[in-house]
Amino acid sequence: MLLKKICLLMGIHLFWMCLFLFYFPRHSQGSVSKYLIRIQDMAPPNNSSMAPISEFALICFPNFQSWQHWLSLPLSILFLLAIGANTTLLITIRLEASLHEPMYYLLSLLSLLDIVLCLTVVPKVLDIFWFDHKSINFSACFLQMFIMNSFLTMESCTFMVMAYDRYVAICHPLRYPSIITDQFVAKAAIFVVTRSGLLTMPIPILSSQLRYCASNIIKNCICTNMSVSRLSCDDTTFNQLYQFVIGWTLLGSDLILIVISYSFILKAVFRIKAEGAGAKALSTCGSHFILILFFSTVLLVLVITHMNKEISDSIGILIKVLLIFLQFLFLSPHAK
């Protein structure tokens, strides 16, 4: 029942965002059309007419287009592995009554987030690699932008909740059954979805309200806010500042709380004098800590490759795509 509630909550969350994004981009395109008409009115009669931009074109590797077919094979394998592993975990937890516990419900939530992220990114990337279908309409682009922003922050928040779960299990084992309950997981899931959804929702909405009157070529495999907003002829300072502040606030606060939780865990482990008890306690959270470390490293590399101007567009995009796919694979149940 808890898994059904979590799925329903995420479904409602995506439904309302779809309504927002299917309205706002149309409004934005109307603004673009009016803006272009004003430009045409002011332009000399001999100038060629300008057509409003109604869709974007995703150019994954601007300088190495021939690589796409070679990359499609390993990315397809990683996609199947990630989807298969996470689906297997969800089915196993659903059918096995002994796994109906809070810790496994949190793993289920993480798997659901991985599946949605994977289905949001991979099919379009493979469509570009296989069939060279680079175009993506406004609504689909901004919806992909929203899912990437909100679900990545949901994963970060889920890691934070799992760190708290491990803290209670090791530092307060006798109180664990009374603190980490099904009700706690349900409230945590609502908090994870609501916090990330509400705070990241303005990012695609702000981008959809910009006027796109120049190039429509996005030098990326996915619609990120930075890649899309740079095509606008409006001032994007507030848009980029909002994403920067919200991103570092959400991810930074989660990371700080995770570090604090593991500091208390290590402190409690070192106090255990029974032989083998400390190693056993660490083994219960070792894989979780590795996942958090890998997730944080991926985000850090993505930020560095985006900000470093010395890295070419093609190499930067390649690093981002590979890291995203490796994240899907590494966060799969095989690693869990």
Domain count: 1
Strand order in the sheet with the most strands: 2-1-3
Q: Main beta sheet: strand number and arrangement?
A: 3 strands, mixed
Average the pLDDT over all residues and give the rounded result. Answer: 76
Oligomeric nature of the chains: single chain
In CATH, the architecture is: Up-down Bundle
Shape: elongated
Supply database-style keywords:
single chain, 336 residues, mainly alpha, Rhopdopsin 7-helix transmembrane proteins, 3-stranded mixed β-sheet, 11 helices, 3 strands, 75% helix, elongated
Could you characterize what this model shows?
It is found in: Membrane. InterPro entries: GPCR_Rhodpsn_7TM, Olfact_rcpt, OR51/52/56-like. Residues 85-326 form the G-protein coupled receptors family 1 profile domain. This is Olfactory receptor 56A4-like. By secondary structure, the protein is mostly helical. The chain has a single domain (2-8, 65-330), classed as Rhodopsin 7-helix transmembrane proteins (Rhopdopsin 7-helix transmembrane proteins), CATH 1.20.1070.10. The chain is built from 11 helices and 3 strands; from the N terminus they run H-E-H-H-E-H-H-H-H-E-H-H-H-H. Helix 3 runs antiparallel to helix 4 (138-171) and helix 9 runs antiparallel to helix 10.
